[in-house]
Amino acid sequence: MPQTFQQSVITEFRANAGKVGGPFEGTDLLLLTTTSARSGKPHTTPLGHVRDGRRLLVVASNLGAPVHPDWYRNLLAHPTVRVELGDEEFESLAVPAEGARRDELFARVVAEAPGYAEYQDATDRVLPVVVLELPDPDAVAPPVTSLADKLVEVHTWLRGQLRHAHDETEAYFAERAGHGGAGEPPAPGIGLQIRQRCLAFCQALEFHHTAEDGHMFPTMEGYHPHLRDVFDRLREEHRSIGAVQSALADLLADAAIAEPDRFRAELARMTEELTAHLDYEEEHILPLLAEVPWPPAAA
Where in this chain does the record put each Hemerythrin-like domain (predicted)? Predict the structure, then answer.
């Protein structure tokens, strides 16, 4: 899709709550904003989708070209994406389906949009099917009125992603052990669901700790110099956790994690160190932030 035409589709989509005319009239479109694997800048792409319950399915067809589209390579590097759907906008974890599940979901897509079968016939490349989870309509986020609330929100997300990654990893190892030599063993490595979740977690954790070290902690230390030992300990823990995060990120560099046993050990180490760090930070920092309004007042 030429860049100027693509931008016109994006503009029309946003101006009309997802309704687009011309060749896309009546098509179920969404806007997917990924982070460029090369530049780190946001990149928005209009894509057709098929709804499957609480999931949206998008296919990296590239019109049957022999290479994956840029947006697919982007989400492998940065799994957290932004989705615009009608007048909704939300973040989602982008997870390519694998094996039999990919084939099942691709058949689901083709049943509703047969043109994707023609794109698959045009290339030797297996067209990836990417799953985007819709937000839980019953989830009620607690109100965030102070910087303490915001810190708890971030910590809750980090703990939740770490718990999901741990549960999914243990389920993978249990399935692998269950084969026990009978029949075909599971594919080597750890699945894309775990890889995408853990990579998104690592990137969010790095961003959070960088912001604390660069902005929040120096400001707070200026107001509370008597807590210098607390801030020194938190910064030292950031460095230690950062080493684990880097080890995990290295293992997550490829689409398939080649050393699942080492990954499992590093994830357990991350769980132990980060949980203790968050508990200590909340004990000493939250009371200082309870009176700081969020979002910050405009200057």
Answer: 161-289
Do 275 and 156 share a structural domain? yes
Helix (H, G, I), strand (E, B) or coil at 182: coil
What lies within 8 Å, CB to CB, of 179 at 6+ separation is 185, 186
Q: What is the pLDDT of residue 222?
A: 95
Sign of CA dihedral 8, 14, 19, 24: positive
Got the DSSP string for 192-250? HHHHHHHHHHHHHHHHHHHHIIIIIHHHHHHH-GGGHHHHHHHHHHHHHHHHHHHHHHH
What SS3 class is residue 72? helix
CATH number, residue 78: 2.30.110.10
Question: How many domains, the chain?
Answer: 2
β-sheet bridge partners, residue 55: 52, 133
Mean pLDDT along residues 171-198:
71
Q: Are residues 129 and 159 in the same domain?
A: no
Please give the model's pTM, rounded to 2 decimal places.
0.90
pLDDT tens digits along 85-125: 999 999 999 999 999 999 999 999 999 999 999 999 999 99
